[in-house]
Amino acid sequence: MAEDPRDWELETQAVRGGLMRTEHGEISEALFLTQSFAYESAASADARFAGGPGFIYQRFGNPTTEMFEQRLALMEGAEACRATASGMAAVHLALMGLVRAGDHIVAGRALFGSCRWILSEWMPRFGVETTYVDATDIAAWKNAVRPNTKAFLVESPANPLLEVTAIGAVAEIAHAAGAKLVVDNVFATPVFQKPLALGADVVVYSATKHIDGQGRVLGGAILGAAELLTSAYKDIHRHTGPALSPFNAWVLLKGLETLELRVRRQTETAAKLADAIASHGKVMRTIYPGRADHPQAALIANQMSGGGNVIAFDLGGREAAWRFLDTLQIVDISNNLGDAKSMATHPCTTTHRSMPEAERLEIGLTEGWIRMSVGLEGPGDLTRDVSRALDAA
Ligand SMILES: *Cc1c(COP(=O)(O)O)cnc(C)c1O
Hints:
- This protein has two domains: 5-254, Type I PLP-dependent aspartate aminotransferase-like (Major domain) (Aspartate Aminotransferase, domain 2, 3-Layer(aba) Sandwich), CATH 3.40.640; 261-392, Aspartate Aminotransferase, domain 1.
- Strand 2, helix 5 (113-122) and strand 3 form a beta-alpha-beta unit.
- The chain is α/β, with parallel strands linked by helices.
- The model has no long low-confidence stretch (mean pLDDT 97).
- The chain has a seven-stranded mixed sheet with strand order 1-7-6-5-4-2-3, with helices on both faces.
- The protein is built from 15 helices and twelve strands.
- Pyridoxal-5'-phosphate (PLP) is lined by residues 86-88, 91, 112, 155, 159, 184, 186, 206, 208-209, 218, 220.
């Protein structure tokens, strides 16, 4: 019987999923830098335009991009995937494909800054309103539903304080309301959380983060049931132009090969580092989804199989936080995450500076918080670097 890649282990899917070889039998996936495709005959052009198999134009699809989409879909356990030029293109498309003028969205209030801009500044221009809720409060999701609610959006774990949302419970509320649940799964990665299996309808990624994981290219993806990806997203993706470049798709395809290895190693190091940070006298509070003292540890045990590589900790004030950053010698001061290189940032003055103070306080983000993305350096070197910077804070 032929092997079904859907039954493969994640590690096998990561290196062999979606592979389409040419007649040369190349081992490494081919990079097709081509905008368009020549047809054998007028009739074959007609057949492709009628929806038959084969490629037409890079904005619609490309063999390298399709290999990336198929590999990621297998790893996510999704029927279908559409790649986009960035994570934000994926989030924008994921929402735009579900709503029209007069509709309503419910979103967790701790969201990536650009996602908030789309909901608060962009969508209202087209008559779509958003209600923000405390994503950890199930009753709040239920109470926010209106007759015209069409989409729920949540990040879990959320940036920057790693709040976790009960995806299954929120999916039930969305479905009872006739809405779709979109989950931004960047922090957990497909290695540690499968939102579709928990009940979500759509998963979005910034592939810029762990999927590349080596600081090179932007990319994104939308995943879900084949029917939904066709009905809600196929036309908007083709005609508004957020296609992923085949070059970036190739880089990300190679990134997927080592995603599981990298994320597991980063997570092992993050767990050690989180313990060292939590036990340091200068640290008021540490939040790490892999620790038993995470406020939602029981929920995490239910829906995630690992804590991930991001740690948040509170040094009590801006001065101490900045001294910590300025003392680091190995870890970079940078706002990215999921990279091979460890990075730390002060969210209040970088990623979350445009968030009004009242809203920042609502999510508990005060001036002392540092968010750290743990990379692939040696755990001993990182512990020494971080401990020295904590001493200085
Ligand atoms: C980075 C990020 C995005 C945006 O992705 P880009 O690739 O930078 O466009 C969206 N959501 C989360 C949680 C992110 O970390």
